Amino acid sequence: MRGDFHHMKKLVVLNILWLLLGCTDDNGLKPRYVADIEESRAVWEELKAKHGGNYTYETSYSSWTGSRSRYEFIVRNNVMYEIHIYSGSGEEKLKLQNKVRYDTVSIENKGDYRTIDEQYAFCIDSVLTLPRKKNEVTLVFSKNGILARCQYRPYNCADDCTMGPEIENLRY
To answer: Which helix (H) or strand (E) holds 46?
Structure first.
């Protein structure tokens, strides 16, 4: 009985050390990621409140084939309001292809259009929990501490494989 207690105590101490050193199992969040993202989210909450939940940000995509697109997300009162979609190829200037009111977007496509709050949640729940042995994960913050990129790329993929939130050109 006494040996079992000491064995359990030893396991608890080892687990605490494991967490403090920033180690993770193949599917878990690294503690430093959790602290970094929560600190960033606190900065975001302050800025969002200061501007009444009104902001615009962009995300860009490019393919090895030369096609490019840029999405401009307009959020009003913390709710996705409108999406401007620009596209082009090669060196040509991106042209506005479509303006979409968010309330008209089909439900199956709404997951592609996220507020920054939803980008944080997606990052934490869907990207940072991916298996590290199968995916390269990138977490980047802007100069003011806001989430800039939370992306992953499967190691076994060669082209156009980077996925996950990217927040560019945030403005109020």
So the answer is: helix 31-50
Token readout for 147 is 């989430």
DSSP bridge partners of 133: none
Q: Could you report the average pLDDT of every consecutive run of 10 residues in the chain (172 residues)?
A: 48 41 49 85 97 94 77 92 81 65 59 85 88 88 95 84 87 95
- Residue 100 corresponds to which tokens in the numbers above? 């979409």
Measured torsion, CA atoms of residues 120, 126, 131, 133, in degrees rounded to the nearest 10: -60
> Which long-range contacts (C-beta less than 8 Å, at least 24 apart) are formed by 116-119?
116/44, 116/48, 116/55, 116/57, 116/75, 116/146, 116/147, 116/167, 116/170, 117/44, 117/48, 117/78, 119/147, 119/150, 119/165, 119/167
